[in-house]
Amino acid sequence: MNMDATRAIRQDHELLRKKLTILGSALQVAPEVRFVLREMSFSLQHLLSDHARREARALELYNQRLPAGSRVSPGRDHADVQHLLRGVNELLLGGMRASLSAVVTRLSEVIDRLEAQMDEQERTVFEFLDHAEPSPVDGAPRERDAEAIESSMSANEILQRFPQTVPLFERLHIDRLQEGYDSVDEIAWHHGLDASQFLEQLRQAVASVPAKS
Questions:
Q1: Is 162 exposed, middle or buried (0-12, 13-18, 19+ CB in 10 A)?
Q2: Domain boundary among 101, 131, 161
Q3: Considering the entire predicted model, what is its pTM?
Q4: Which tens digits make up the pLDDT trace of 89-126?
Q5: CATH code of the domain containing 60
Q6: Which residues contact 44 (CB under 8 A, 6 or more apart)?
């Protein structure tokens, strides 16, 4: 069984479900807090975008082995949710002019659709990917490739796969116990960092210090 094929997107699903749960609670408890909804919606959009790219890469490796007529088009499953999120974020950028009822309705639809899509994918595509043989074109996973670090990855995943990043996390006083399950975007937000610069620092840490064999 080849579990590496779906490990990354399984972890994405865990993070996405966590965000959807928090977002759902926010909609019920304090839907009038525009700033909170805006931050959560933008964060979800970034995470989903990164997930769609990872999903496309995984499917590209294995799609050719799917039965005729059953191939999954990369990005197809989440395109509608991404479109909804972009619309929500455009509304929220309007500040106080944004219709909160429209925002709440669309975010509720995002939660329902994305959860349904992940449920279906986990029932169908994941099982096939777990048992399929990797495509000989791609070769072994590039664990040491700095570009493998993406903004939706959790601190724990990065530290486990890339121990070269430990000094950076320590220098920035990032608490692994408290923030281990947070993504790069979330950690940057909590610490007042620029997310893109923090991501680049992580990648540079991996590129500059070879992993121990």
A1: buried
A2: 131
A3: 0.60
A4: 888 877 667 678 888 899 999 999 999 988 888 877 77
A5: 1.20.120
A6: 16, 19, 20, 23, 85, 110
